[in-house]
Amino acid sequence: MGYYIAVEPTVKVYVEDLNPRGNKTIMFLHGWPGSHKLFEYQFDHLPSMGYRCVGIDTRGFGNSDKPYKGYDYDRLADDVRCVVNALRLRDFILVGHSTGGAIAVRYMSRHKGYGVSKLALFAAAVPSLIKRSDFPYGLEKEVVVNIIKGTYNDRPKMLRDFGNMFFFKYITKDLSDWLFQLGLQAAGWATAAIANTWLREVLFHDLETITVPTLILHGIHDKIVPFSLAKVQRQYIENSKLVPFEFSGHGLFYDEKDKFNEELVKFIEE
């Protein structure tokens, strides 16, 4: 089932809701520049195990409305809260990949974890995707600046280059093309705006506010969100567990999808 939920008077986000009568609800927040469809190989599997899977397309991406503004983490976390309220979700598992992980962390801080019983972060872009004067981990700032320039000058090439770094294992050209098309669904201005958010925002304090059980899954070969960030997350989140994926890059939910699904289910059922 797919439908639109208003998050502002003139903005609606698209929500995919599989197995609405499932015993436990998992809300998925996707990474940049994709959509909920990045989790296809989880949505194929988890509903058959009795789970309700809710996937939100971030504003500006996928099937959601694409306004020119509203791409800071506060607004994106508020969008999530609007969906939680509209679906009347309680006691759900919140999971986020990459930028979706950053949005999930801001939701936990800004909305005091409203309705969330457990949190799972996959290659999450927190507490800072880029290196800073007091933070030696992450990407060089110039990498993100070049992504923004590429978005405005030749977005298809930027997306293709990004896709070439996404997985660790060999993928077919067909899968590469599929990932590329997901990126093209986004608006150019939204693509650039999120990248600018990476430059501006940090989530050190947000991590410290998290009290629910938290699972951190991260590929050790990740070229987009370095594995070192996962270690920082583990240090900042008191009740957390880090599971390294030894044969994965940024797209660990595909690189090692069986292990990924098993670790997620095990965590939910603990």
TrEMBL record:
The keyword Oxidoreductase applies. Its EC number is 1.-.-.-, 3.1.1.2. GO terms for molecular function: arylesterase activity; oxidoreductase activity. InterPro entries: AB_hydrolase_1, AB_hydrolase_fold, AB_hydrolase_sf, Epox_hydrolase-like. Residues 25-123 form the AB hydrolase-1 domain. GO terms for cellular component: membrane. The keyword Oxidoreductase applies. Transmembrane segments: none annotated. It holds the Pfam family Abhydrolase_1. Keywords: Hydrolase, Oxidoreductase. PANTHER family: AB HYDROLASE SUPERFAMILY PROTEIN YCLE, MONOACYLGLYCEROL LIPASE. This is Arylesterase. It comes from Clostridium colicanis DSM 13634.
